[in-house]
Amino acid sequence: MPQEPSKILVTGGAGFIGGAVCRRLIASGASVINFDKLTYAACPASLAEVEGSNRYAFVQGDVADRDAVRRAFETHRPDAVMHLAAESHVDRSIESAEPFITTNVVGTYVMLEEAARHWRGLPADKAEAFRFLHISTDEVYGSLGEEGLFTETTPYDPRSPYSASKASADHLVSAWGHTYGLPVLISNCSNNYGPFHFPEKLIPLVILNALEGRPLPVYGDGGHVRDWLYVEDHAEALHLMLLKAAPGASYNIGGMSERTNLQVVQAICDLVDAAAAPLPSGPRRGLITFVPDRPGHDRRYGVDPGRIGEELGWRPKTAFETGLQRTVDWYLNRRDWWQPLRERYDGRRLGLKAAE
């Protein structure tokens, strides 16, 4: 049997999902090398509970910088890679696609090249155990109608610069597995939520705006549907993939919690009303403001996580209502974490710029 990976290179470990992965790996007894560029959305404070561990190391670097990536592999000699580094905000990709192509496509190519170089130099037992786990998104599949769910065999149909860049990265990872034999894994997840989420995304943005009595923008008619996955459940699924999945496997990871955007915003309003000081204007649902829709906005995503359940035994543990309550409570009690980020990003809407 291959040995369990004990030293893992995590790219983008100062991000939202990457931070949850780092915290879980350290708690499991593994060693982590967090390779992160520290872009606007990164928050090293999310890793305060692990940064003092002698099994945690931080390396600031860009996945598109081949020399920096090679140094990380040669210095730390990881047993596996969990590749999460990505530009991820759809609205920002509409404003400017270039960073998404550089990080998500070129960066993934560089990671694959350097991972393959490292893997070919490993002893036989370590080479057999090595894995390159690429974390992707359900957005690569495009938009669903009212029925059906995305499966691992759903054809790719990306609609935004962000999803197109992630689809490109997925295909590169698959190609490196088929052509060069690199033991790759691919996951495609639904919308994550939970503590430590950068406040440009829907749930944290609405929580903070509701707390402060600001307008709560809802795109279009609010009927766009997303499947919501609690971030700690996602980190558990990724860890399980790393330990148990066979090379070449791909898994969809979903929370089985579809909600319209309007339902999510309304639920947040009610939770903040129950936990925070009332507003002079009345219940926070009155702050909901319908705004022009995002260009090319996919109507519905829904994920079938049946394969990972059947093959690896994973199921989401956190009901949406429970996870949302935890998330709202966390933000209400962690102004120390989000206030500096709020000063860097004030909630201004992005994604209205037309292509030039």
Radius of gyration: 20 Å
Order of helices and strands: EHEEHEHHHEHEEHEEHEEHEHHH
Strand order of the largest sheet: 3-2-1-4-5-6-10
**Helical content class:** 40-55%
**Measured distance between first and last alpha carbons:** 54 Å
Uncertain residue ranges: none
Task: Describe this structure in a few short sentences.
With 356 residues, the chain is an alpha/beta fold.
Which helices and strands appear, and what pairs or packs with what?
Layout: E1 7-11, H1 16-28, E2 31-36, E3 56-60, H2 66-76, E4 80-83, H3 90-95, H4 98-120, H5 124-129, E5 131-137, H6 161-180, E6 184-189, E7 191-193, H7 202-212, E8 216-219, E9 225-230, H8 231-244, E10 250-253, E11 258-260, H9 261-275, E12 288-291, H10 306-312, H11 320-333, H12 335-344
